Amino acid sequence: MKSLLIMRHAKSSWSDSDLGDHDRPLNDRGKRDAPRMGRLLADERMTPDLIISSTAKRARKTVAKVAKASGFDGDIQFEAGLYHGDCETWLSLLRNVPERNDRVMVVGHNPGLEMLLELLTGRREELPTAALACLTLPIENWSQLPREPAGELAGIWRPRDLG
User: Fold this and answer.
1) pLDDT in tens, 102-156
2) Residue 14 contacts residue 24 (beta carbons within 8 Å)
3) Element (H, E) at 5
4) Cα angle for residues 104, 53, 43 (degrees, 5° grid)
5) pLDDT tens, 46-97?
6) φ/ψ (deg, to 5) at 11
7) What are phi and psi of 43, to 5 degrees?
8) CB 99 within 8 A of CB 141
9) Distance from CA of residue 115 to its chain's centroid?
10) Which of 30, 39, 100, 137 could pair with 11 as two cysteines, CB 3.0-4.6 Å apart?
């Protein structure tokens, strides 16, 4: 059994219109929500073995804050193709994850992440900024990741629901 944590990047800033979309930083809410989600990972004993993230600045900053707050000390893999990654991009990448990683977290963008969650669980869920979904997958090896609903949504957390 493998676990997949799907997290959308935290809220980003639009204050500097000279910045391209890829280079937008986190805004104050994003800087506050990302560590909250990291603490949730630690509290729920869901700290991942591996984090795979988009290279966008808001995703990288989200990962840094989540990793620090959760006590994560594993590998972080940044992939440029995840910036506009669709389901096929995510699936291809996940199918190549080393088997020693039982719990993997992906950090990226919509609509790709919502589509990935729906593809793997058959459930359509909204992933606002900094939302985190935990899927359990009935596979022993990441290479067995299906292209059809086979996983179970074990939990979903949105910053606004944490109080």
Assistant:
1) 999 999 999 999 999 999 999 999 999 999 999 999 999 999 998 889 999 999 9
2) yes
3) strand 2-8
4) 50
5) 999 999 999 999 999 999 999 999 999 999 999 998 988 888 999 999 999 9
6) -60, 130
7) -65, -35
8) yes
9) 13
10) 30
